[in-house]
What does this fold into?
Amino acid sequence: MNTLNVDAPQCVLLIDDDESIAGSLCQYLLTQGFGVAVALDSASAAQLMDGRQYDVVVVDPYLTGGVLEEDDALLSMIRSRQPAATLIVLTGYDSPSLTISARREHASAVLTKPQSVVSLSEFIVGAVSQRVQNLQFSTTSQRMIE
It folds into this structure.
């Protein structure tokens, strides 16, 4: 479990048991000015989610490397603890059931491994930009109503 630059305006939670993927993406996102927390298992992810709200959560729901029904439970836990976060599913085991679970939990995307760190980062930056625009629009709309 690793948390870096948590004072950054936008924070990303990476949940992946592949330390090389999580570590590479973490380092790249840090250079882009993001705060990043990394969890290598669901228990660590739950602890990190209890401590703060994240803008984006990137998760490999098959943390054990197997295709199990745990994906539903993990995605559901993320959505219940981080309801406002943009959820991105990143997996090497894409399946129709995972796509259904991801849609049910309002995931923005299901991406398959391998992905380059740069393309993943660009996707995350785009998700954060869209989130910021939506928040600004929502705030402006609320002011106009008042």
User: Anything to note?
Assistant: The helical segments are 19-31, 42-51, 70-81, 96-104, 117-145. Residues 2-145 form a domain with the Rossmann fold fold (CATH 3.40.50.2300). The two ends are 43 Å apart (CA to CA). The beta strands are 2-4, 11-15, 35-39, 56-59, 86-91, 109-112.
